[in-house]
Each structure stands twice: as structure tokens, then as C-alpha cells.
Write a structure and sequence with these properties.
Elements lengths: L3 E4 L2 E13 L2 E7 L9 E3 L6 H13 L3 E16 L2 E14 L12 E5 L2 E9 L13 H4 L8 E6 L6
Parallel strand pairs: 2-6, 5-9
Antiparallel strand pairs: 1-2, 2-3, 2-4, 3-8, 5-6, 7-8
Length: about 160
């Protein structure tokens, strides 16, 4: 069972994000009809570590095996989405593929699945991220130079709720 719990007028999520880099590119994804991009990953399941979630999510969504190299960011994020308020704790991991894989090839988009949702995956040049609608927003700049040690961030976007 995923750790996503309605509490009062909000939702608490525990999420793992995956950072897969190929040279100067990073892999992002979005739901088919969304206008914004995010790092691959998903909600942590009960009694599953967030690093295990990172591995599981890429296997489930696009069928690739990854190895977690290290934790880059631990975030506490407060944000609005679809008229709801979210309190999300997320761990973002740098990963590498276990074997060479065709997802590294070409510039085109490819698809994956999350339940019934079609996910669009695309490689983005890291230098183009500041102009990309990518959430959480700190990734637009911070993916340009990955931290050497885990960094804790608190992000408050609740003013955007209106």
C-alpha cells in the first residue's frame, strides 16, 4: 500500500524520485495529458525503503533495472495540486542502469505505464531545464550541479494555491 494519506484538508505523500543521467541529459516523465514534467519515481509503499521504491518504480513503469548510487536530496514539500494541498516528503536518488539499454538512444520520447495512466518519458538537456516546466522547481537549477552529499530542502509553494 502506497504511503499517500488524506489528513484533514490535505494529503500526505512519501515519494522517491529517480535521477538518471546520460552525459548532459536527464530523464524526465509526465502523465500523457499533463503540461509539466517531473523526475520518474513514485510513492513509497508501506515497509519499503525509499531506495527500494526508486528501483521498483523504474522496473514497473519502463521495464529497466537500476542500481541506486546515492541519495542527493531529501525534501519536505508543501504544494497545491488539482485544488488539493499536499505535504510531501521525498527522497531523490541518483541511479544508473544495470546494463546498457535502448532508452539511452535517440532523442525521441517513449512511453511507460503507471496503472492505467500512460507516461511520456523524454531526455532533456540539463542546460534547458531552467526554461522547462519541471516540478519541484528547485530541480530546474539544481540538476545542473549534483550535490556531493545529501541536501535537505524545505519547499513551500502553498502561496500558489490562492
Amino acid at each position: 500500500m502506497d504511503i499517500s494519506v488524506p489528513i484533514g484538508n490535505g494529503i500526505f505523500n512519501f515519494r522517491a524520485g529517480v535521477i538518471l543521467v546520460d552525459g548532459d541529459r536527464v530523464l524526465l516523465h509526465k502523465k500523457e495529458h499533463d503540461t509539466f514534467w517531473a523526475l520518474p519515481g513514485g510513492r513509497v509503499s508501506m515497509f519499503e525503503s525509499s531506495s527500494e521504491t526508486a528501483v521498483r518504480e523504474l522496473k514497473e513503469e519502463i521495464g529497466v533495472d537500476v542500481v541506486v548510487e546515492r541519495l542527493l536530496w531529501h525534501t519536505e514539500n508543501f504544494f497545491p495540486f488539482e485544488d488539493k494541498k499536499f505535504h510531501e516528503v521525498a527522497d531523490y536518488y541518483l541511479v544508473r542502469l544495470q546494463d546498457s539499454h535502448t532508452i539511452y538512444c535517440g532523442e525521441s520520447q517513449f512511453t511507460g505505464m503507471e496503472g492505467d495512466d500512460v507516461l511520456i518519458y523524454k531526455w532533456f538537456d540539463i542546460s534547458e531545464l531552467p526554461g522547462t516546466e519541471l516540478y519541484p522547481e528547485f530541480l530546474r537549477e539544481d540538476l545542473r550541479e549534483l550535490p556531493e552529499h545529501p541536501v535537505f530542502l524545505t519547499i513551500n509553494q502553498m502561496d500558489d494555491l490562492g
